[in-house]
Structures are given as structure tokens and as C-alpha cells.
């Protein structure tokens, strides 16, 4: 029996009822079709880097997508869902295509990137996505989708989130033939590269700078560093239609659904600084010592302990700012608060 803790970056989750690895798209669809025909619950996963699974595990079929295939045609890169994301970034730069460099070092599979519209350092998956192949478990159809169908808009939202109806089979990105990056909008990254915001830089240098910054923040997976036993940002930046007076000093950004606030700032200013939690309970769950948004497993945590810790942080932020934080990650058979 497979324990899901072995398959998730937070190393959490009890046993899988059944576990299958699918290396071809045809097998992936066939397996899910068979399970759906007999009403068996299915959990589709890639790298397990955005999943927190309950201690009781998942009673149905867990399908890990490891399909392969990456083709470059002019400025278009088409990638199977199971390909590890960072190899796509590297391969696109090696092919002389610019665009993905700010998304270097993000763990997980390519099929996972449209789910929460993965983004970092001023770039979003949706900026570069041109087409997806999607299997619809309700209708049984396999269709080519344009990004306009994906429900991207407000921060980290998509039609793939909070539903298990759709399975992403492959994605196509449209990049730019260049060895120079797109304009660097993220001030911290521009600073690191010694350029002004809005300037460009060689894509290889941008990739190295992004990897270096991410490593410093515990955002590159490293089995020996518990600060990286996480799902990246555990809490989502809240988007509000009106910002409570108490939170007026929090960094704010425009969002299609209102104003986006920095969850890291709110957590920090509610009294939970980096590393918080080491002296709490068994000390098995704590905020990363490098990043206030990352809830980390210090080695022996259970999902129950993580949920209790997350509820404690949420309560502290709510009491201080009247803002209720939600998860950025996908919670399966577990919840906090
Ligand atoms: C150290 C660290 C740093 C991170 N940094 C970032 C960051 O900078 N920016 C960012 O946006 N995210 C970041 N993340 C979060 C995570 O890496 C991304 O969300 C990633 O895209 C998840 O991909 P995955 O394959 O691991 O998905 P999983 O964790 O396996 O699955 C996540 C969700 O996607 C669904 N899913 C997975 N594959 C498919 C598919 N083919 N079709 C349909 N649904 C699918 C699953 O059912 C689940 O609901 C970070 C995580 C970690 C651990």
C-alpha cells in the first residue's frame, strides 16, 4: 500500500486505496474512465507540491500523472501534463525561447500549472498559455481549450480549482524567440540583476537570479532543508472589495476582483514571524525560517497538527485585521477551522 506522504512535498497524507502511475495520456484517460464507470473516487496528482492530504489518506484511486513529451515548433512549446515543470523552463531557454524564465524552480508538473495559474516574479502561466488539451470527466470529451475558457482572472483562480471534473492532458505555451528576457517587472528581481524595473536581461541570467532568490527563501525543494517541506505559499493572498482600516498599511495590489493584500505581511504583522511554531506543541509544524507564508513540516508532523497550526495562524490574523485567510493549496480530506 502506498502512503501519500511519500508523494507530497509536505510529506503528509495517509494511505492511498489504490495507486497508479500513468506514463501515457491514453492510459491516463482509460484509467480515469474505468474508475468513473464504477463510481470510484479519483485523485489526480502531479508532483504533490500543492496538496495537503489528510492522515486517513484517500480511499479511492490516486493517479500520478507522469506522462512525457515536449515539442518545440517555432515559438510554440507543447508539453505533456506529467513533465516536471522546471525541465520545461530549462528546455525552452535552451531552445532560444524567452518567457518562462521568471517561473524557474517552481516544483510540480506542467499539468499542475494551469490549475492555480502558477506565477512568480511578475509572470503568470496564463500570460503565456495558448492552448490546452483537457479531458472532461462529466461529458467524456477530450477537447482543445483556449485560455479564455480557463476562468483565469482573480489571483490564483481557474476553472480547474475546487473541482475534479477536468484533467489537463497537455499544454501549449507561446514564447518569444530571444535570448533576452521579457521586461522584468518584479523590483526585487530587477535589483538582484542590477537593472531597472522594466528592463530586460539575458534569459540565462534571469533564470540563475530567480533560482538564487528562491533558494534563499526556501522555495527550491531540498530534502535536507525542512524549510522546503511545504506547499510553497500555504495561505492565499486575500482579495477584498474593501480593505479594513486596520490593514491599510499592508501592501496592496489591483486585482480583477478587488484589492489583493499580502498574506505574508498580514501573518508577520499579526505576530507570527518567520520560524514561528518551533516552541509550540511538539514543534513539528512551524512557519519557514525563510518565508512567513510557508507552513512547514519539521520532520514528524501529521496533517492534523498542520491543520491545527493553520487554524491558529488564521485566527491570529483575523483577530488583528478582521481578514480571514484561506488556503492557496488544495486540501484533500482535511480542513482547518
Ligand atoms: C517549495 C515550493 C515552492 C513553490 N513555489 C510556487 C510559486 O512560486 N508559485 C506558484 O504559483 N506555486 C508555487 N508552489 C506550488 C506548486 O508548486 C504549484 O502549485 C504546482 O503547479 C503544483 O503542481 P503539482 O504537479 O505538484 O500539483 P499537485 O500538488 O500534484 O496537485 C495540485 C492540484 O492540481 C491538481 N492537478 C495536478 N495535476 C493535474 C492535471 N494534470 N489535471 C488536472 N488537475 C491536476 C490536483 O488534483 C490538485 O488539486 C510551490 C510549492 C513548493 C513546495
Key words describing this protein structure:
337 residues; alpha+beta; Uridine Diphospho-n-acetylenolpyruvylglucosamine Reductase, domain 2; Uridine Diphospho-n-acetylenolpyruvylglucosamine Reductase, domain 3; Uridine Diphospho-n-acetylenolpyruvylglucosamine Reductase, domain 1; 3 domains; five-stranded antiparallel beta sheet; 23% strand; binds flavin-adenine dinucleotide
Could you explain how this protein is built, in words?
This protein has helices at residues 25-37, 85-94, 125-128, 187-193, 203-216, 263-269, 303-321; strands at 16-22, 42-45, 51-53, 58-65, 70-73, 76-80, 97-98, 119-120, 123-124, 129-136, 142-145, 166-174, 176-177, 239-240, 252-255, 258-261, 285-287, 295-297, 330-332. With 337 residues, the protein is α+β, with helices and mostly antiparallel strands. It folds into three domains: 4-65, 2-Layer Sandwich (Uridine Diphospho-n-acetylenolpyruvylglucosamine Reductase, domain 2), CATH 3.30.43.10; 70-216, Uridine Diphospho-n-acetylenolpyruvylglucosamine Reductase, domain 3 (2-Layer Sandwich), CATH 3.30.465.10; 226-332, UDP-N-acetylenolpyruvoylglucosamine reductase, C-terminal domain (Uridine Diphospho-n-acetylenolpyruvylglucosamine Reductase, domain 1, Alpha-Beta Complex). A five-stranded antiparallel β-sheet has the order 5-6-12-10-11. A three-stranded parallel β-sheet has the order 1-4-2, with helices on one face. Strands 14-16-15 form a three-stranded antiparallel β-sheet. The longest helix is centred in the last third of the chain and has 19 residues, at 303-321. It is globular, with a radius of gyration of 20 Å. The mean pLDDT is 96. The structure holds flavin-adenine dinucleotide. The site of flavin-adenine dinucleotide has 34 residues, from strand 2, strand 8 and strand 12.
